[in-house]
Amino acid sequence: MLFAGKALPDANDFVESAISNSRNVTVAIDDADAKNQFTGKMAGFAWQRTSPVSARTFVLQSETAFGKVDEAVLFFDENYYASQFEALTIEECSRAHDTATIGYQYLTMELLTRFEKSFLINPAQEAKVAPGKLVFVIKNSLEEIDLVKNPSLRNTAPCAGPFVASAAKAFAAFAESVAALYGGKDYVSVILVRADNANEVMKKDSDFASWLCGYLDSIDGLKSKPSLKQSVSWIKAGAKAGGLASLFK
What we know:
The chain is α/β, with parallel strands linked by helices.
């Protein structure tokens, strides 16, 4: 599983939980000069979000580390970004765009390319390769408009400023468009997951990772991959996987 959106050490809780749920995990290190990290079933690689070359290298290194990348989770956490981009300045605008928008898009394009190549590497293969899973996750927080509508919410949770709020909406729109374009392809299942601060599963990254791994495992047990219409629908984090058989039949 490739995990991007939170870098080490902030991603540790998610990574450790995913490993305990039978995953090998590759994760980003935002420092371009940092050395690669290898610890058992975890590998950390430098990822420069503004570079399409770095996105490709991250994916290829992940493949090399564990033999394949068959699951990728792109995680946008408004709370995580809120404290990083508070000022309304030109510098913050540029940095927020680089950090919270374009990097996800570069990485998505590389992942889709690798999923397709892996699926088509041997069209006549006896053991059919399962479609890759591309998961877009957005955890919404309070935004300034929410405080105007309900002032009592102030100081109850981190509040996303204009750059983070707009980046979150761009991420969601991008995810939906990718699902619409690729959800019907044989080589990839696109899964959209959404939650807010009140969602119990999303309060701890470890709990979310455990739920998500179980949800993805349930998709593996289906007779067919999710349809295009199902791919463009947002799933609430914590939804019971037991309903998948009827949902995706």
